[in-house]
Amino acid sequence: MNEEKEKVMKQFGANASKYVSSKSHAKGEDLAILVDWIKPDKEWSVLDIATGGGHVAKALALHVNEVFATDLTKAMLENTSTHLKKSFENIKFVIADAEKLPFLDRTFDVVTCRIAPHHFPTPKDFISEAARVLKPGGLFLMIDNVVPEDRELATFMNTFEKMRDESHVACLPVSRWESYLKGEEMEEVRSLKKKKTYRFPGWVERTTTSSAQVNGVHQYILQASKRVHNYFQVEIQSEKVASVTVDEWMILYKKSMGRTE
Fold it and tell me: Methyltransferase type domain: which residues (predicted)?
């Protein structure tokens, strides 16, 4: 296993319970939106990649036949299973690498992945695997933070994300994701790009391990240019960062009916 994936397992294993209760993960309005977009069917089988606290699996389990909730981190999956298995008998928990899924071709009606792809070392492989396990005509829904196309702004965002969370690999620009999806003969159904605000210090402290690390993130953001502050709507109170606002992209794609593996 490569170094990036080992960092993911370490980070999420140590903070498993926080992701079940995290407001940005558990109570996002996108959970209701994704159900509306997908319009799930009672006969469907769903795969939720990098399920984390299981919030997407929980939202969809009420409407489909079965959900396979997968995650690379065993401790995370065990914690999520403890919270959900008593209430949702149709959720199955499987340890799985997003870039090398242990499922047969054309297995699922829907594949989802929410607020996780920025942890994947090879996102193109993740998209290829999602397309592979989808049935022709199946739906792929992804939600993740994205960076601007502007290199300076993109570098700033990925730098402070990496400073606060060593398991962060990279948020990608929309154009990169679109290229990967097009390469797998996936067709866009709809998309939504919106702003998402992170409040300090709670957001930073969820993944940092020392006060020095927290201070490093603060100082890096404080010292950025006015242009950067304006784009990310940096709010400063009493010489401390109070919040930053990033871009989040939500997409629904459909696998081509003519696609074969």
Answer: 47-141
